[in-house]
Structure formats: C-alpha cells, structure tokens
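Quick bug: Ribonuclease P protein component output formatted oddly.
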Amino acid sequence: MTADAQPKATLRRLKRRSQFLRAARGNRAGRSAFGLQVMASKDEALAGIGFTVTKKVGNSPERNRMKRRLRAAAAACADDFLPGHDYVLLARREALSRPFAKMITDLSGLIARVHDTNVHDTKANDNRTGAGRGPRNATP
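Here's what came back:
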C-alpha cells in the first residue's frame, strides 16, 4: 500500500433473515438495475450490507454474476455508506447488462437519496387531485 492510498471503508455483511426484514421496513429507492433499502441499525461502528437476488431474475449463473457485480459496486461506493445503517441491494435483470460505471453512479445517488428527508416530506404534502385521489363514490 502506498502512502497516497486511502484505506477503504469496511462494511459488515448482513447474514440473518431478521436483518434483511428490518431493512425492508426502512426507506427505499430504486433504479432499473437494482433497488436499495436502508434502516438504522444498533451497530453504530459499521454500515451493514446485504444482497438479494431472487430466482425470478434468472438462472444460477446469472444470479451469481449479478451478486458479484453488486458486491463490486458496493465496494466501490463503500465510503458513501453511513455507519449505523443496514443496506440491502435488490438485484433486477438489468444488473447484467448495465455498464459498471453507471451502476456505481446510480448506487451513490441512491445512497444520498434514501438519506435525504426532504424527498419523503414532499410526497406526504402532495395535494394533487387526479385519478384515484378523490372520494370513492362521488356523485355529481
């Protein structure tokens, strides 16, 4: 290791189902190649990361390739993950063909997005009236 090289942030792996379920209750954001779920955790020292690839998205070699690409993208964005949070990346079929540089920029943007509280406040105060937003059986 040279003197100029910065040490990469370390991430702890999520391994238990309960950790994945807890992250699913948190904030979410998505792109075409993957989705991101995040929830504050009890471990304040490190950020936790988990990967999910369901059988719906492909056969086992494809799923393994998706997981490898997601792990590499997470390692590249390791400094962006906040300590004290658990993150779960959900792979989609697009993760196979997406350029790797684009995956990294998408992931770093999603990390910033799930921690931005203003994004969620604007949806809560949305008062648009359109299809599906009026009274159920309104009569003229």
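Actually, after a second look the formatting is fine. DSSP finds four helices and five strands in the chain. Closing.
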